[in-house]
Amino acid sequence: MAEIIVVTSGKGGVGKTTTSASLACGLARHGHKVAVIDFDVGLRNLDLIMGCERRVVYDFVNVVNGEASLKQALIKDKRFDNLYVLAASQTRDKDALTREGVQKVLDELAADGFDYVICDSPAGIEKGAYLAMYFADQAVVVVNPEVSSVRDSDRILGLLASKTRKAEQGERVKEHLLLTRYSPKRVETGEMLSVGDVEEILGLKTIGVIPESPDVLNASNKGEPVILEVGSDAAQAYDDAVARLLGQNRPMRFVTPEKKGFFSKIFGG
Ligand SMILES: Nc1ncnc2c1ncn2[C@@H]1O[C@H](COP(=O)(O)OP(=O)(O)OP(=O)(O)O)[C@@H](O)[C@H]1O
Ligand SMILES: [Mg+2]
């Protein structure tokens, strides 16, 4: 059985695609067979972050419409043999994806022995986001530590609890909080909400806290998921999140401001 994980948020631009790419890569690095799917019809982005945009011939909508087979459309990652990308269509037709079409693709991935399918949701709470979450077993809710992001995530939690296949069957999608663009310094000064604040408002358990980091943009410019950036805080934080998804215990890092050294304490810095 393939475990279907939606990466969702409500609010746009919070880090869903960044997170989808890194979680997919991290799970593949643990030896699992993984597919990561871009549900953002009209706005292709995941293939850029994964560094395979030049190899996209067929996309998700082509498969749904029967214009290509799933095998033709899946792009094998250059770094991991067991990691595949299904790109979004550039079509302007927002209704190109249907629930039946999505189900067909997910069923075929499960039959092909995929362990995990990561669904990168578009922003908002409309059809695309609904289709991305409908078949999910688990949801990673990506939140920035600010009020507007938390509020939009709360609306997504409402949909996860009512508009999914699990909800229709009287079950629950397993929900995780992933806080990203976290700056412990700005939390300390009261400009940002803390991990504890967000957990309390949303009633979720945290699977990861990703620090604000310039490495994210550098990595995406190179077409490399940031989890592969050696020595990067963001990479280590994503690696911890993947381990927790796999049921391991990892202490939370990057949640307190860096301690200043002796000299900078005395001389300022
Ligand atoms: N931890 C981080 N530190 C710094 N910048 C980040 C971090 N995470 C994401 N970003 C930046 O935030 C922007 C949005 O990221 P991303 O595209 O992953 O968001 P998204 O939620 O998928 O957006 P959309 O809703 O448009 O699909 C990008 O410019 C990315 O580089
Ligand atoms: Mg995105």
Automatic annotation (TrEMBL):
One annotated GO biological process: division septum assembly
SUPFAM superfamilies: P-loop containing nucleoside triphosphate hydrolases
A single MF term (Gene Ontology): ATP hydrolysis activity
Pfam families in the cross-refs: CbiA (PF01656)
GO cellular component labels: cytoplasmic side of plasma membrane; cytosol
Gene3D superfamilies the UniProt entry points to: P-loop containing nucleotide triphosphate hydrolases
Binding site for ATP: 11-18
InterPro entries to which the protein is assigned, alphabetical: CobQ/CobB/MinD/ParA_Nub-bd_dom (IPR002586), MinD (IPR010223), MinD_FleN (IPR025501), P-loop_NTPase (IPR027417), ParA/MinD_ATPase (IPR050625)
Coiled-coil residue windows: none
Domain CobQ/CobB/MinD/ParA nucleotide binding intervals: 5-226
The keyword Methyltransferase is annotated on this UniProt entry: no
Domain of life: Bacteria
UniProtKB keywords: ATP-binding, Cell cycle, Cell division, Nucleotide-binding, Septation
Record's function text: ATPase required for the correct placement of the division site. Cell division inhibitors MinC and MinD act in concert to form an inhibitor capable of blocking formation of the polar Z ring septums. Rapidly oscillates between the poles of the cell to destabilize FtsZ filaments that have formed before they mature into polar Z rings.
Entry-linked PANTHER family: SEPTUM SITE-DETERMINING PROTEIN MIND HOMOLOG, CHLOROPLASTIC (PTHR43384:SF6), SEPTUM SITE-DETERMINING PROTEIN MIND HOMOLOG, CHLOROPLASTIC-RELATED (PTHR43384)
Family: Belongs to the ParA family. MinD subfamily.
Assembly with partners or alone: Interacts with MinC and FtsZ.
Stated name of the protein: Septum site-determining protein MinD
Organism, as annotated: Vulcaniibacterium tengchongense
